[in-house]
């Protein structure tokens, strides 16, 4: 008569171990940072949106009722433009928009024609 194999100890569940905390916590943190960056990305900015200037010459879409709303986007023009060219394009696309925001990204470049609030 043969004996049954010995019972194996399954140990702690992976998610209950302290090692999982050191692996999952940074992964969750970086995922949240990525989602926040996507949500505040100015690449989705359209005419009619309200924006505020952030750090490092960045722009952030804000609620138009917010006291942070500094400018209203009068027009968005996709393409690569430089300083005087950008303002000239805004003069055509959105007359009376004295400010321009130029975004030059790897995947998309555009200008925002801005009016003070």
Protein model, in words:
The chain is an alpha+beta fold and 117 residues long. The protein contains two helices and five strands, in the order H-E-E-E-H-E-E. It has a five-stranded antiparallel β-sheet, with helices on one face. Strand 1 and strand 2 form a beta hairpin. The longest helix has 22 residues, at 18-39. The chain is elongated. The protein starts with 17 loop residues before the first helix and ends with a strand. The chain crosses the membrane at residues 20-39. Keywords: Membrane, Transmembrane, Transmembrane helix.
Mean pLDDT: 78
* Oligomer classification: single chain
**Estimated share of beta-strand residues:** 25-35%
- Helix tally? 2
* Spatial shape: elongated
**Poorly predicted ranges (pLDDT <50, ≥5 residues)?**
28-41
Cα Rg: 25 Å
Strand segment tally: 5
Order of helices and strands: HEEEHEE
Structural class designation: alpha+beta
How are the strands ordered across the major sheet?
2-1-3-5-4
Tell me roughly what share of residues is in helical segments: 25-40%
Q: Tell me about the biggest sheet?
A: 5 strands, antiparallel
> What distance separates the N and C termini?
89 Å
